[in-house]
Amino acid sequence: MQKMSFLIIITIIISIFGCGESETTPNPTDNDDNSAEIRLEEKFSLKIDQVVTVNPVNIKVKFLKVTEDSRCPSDVVCIWAGQVSVLLNVNNNGNDIGDVKLTLGQNKDDTVRDIGGYYLKLIEVKPYPISTKKIEQSEYIITLIISKSKD
Questions:
Q1: 3-state secondary structure (DSSP) of residue 88
Q2: In this predicted structure, what is the pLDDT of residue 63?
C-alpha cells in the first residue's frame, strides 16, 4: 500500500511540474509580419518564413528552407542514417550575417554556428520522413537555440 501511495504522489508531482525543458513556438504578431520575440538560451521552433527576435541581444533568425533531407525514413532499414540541412537568414544587432546552413547528421559541428559571439544550434527538424509521403517545405518545423556557449 505504501508503494502505491508513493507512486501516486510521484505521478502527481511530475504532472504538476512536468519534465524537460520549455520550448517556445513563436506566434506571429498582430501586424502579420510573421515574427515573434523570445529570450536568449530558450529553445524555440520556427516554420518556413517565420522570424524570431532573440532578446536582449537583438538577434533575428528567419527560417528560409530545408535544403536537404536524406534522413532514413522511419519505416525503412538503411545503412546510413542520413542528414537534414536547413537554411536560415541571420541578423545580429543590425549586422546582416547572411544565410547560415545548419545540418543534423553525423558531424555534430555542423549543427552549430558562431553568430558574432553567440551560438545558433539546430536541435531538431520535424516531421521525420516516412517512405510513403513527400514532405512539403511548408510542413517543416525546426527547433533551435541561441546561447552564449557552444554546448
A1: strand
A2: 98
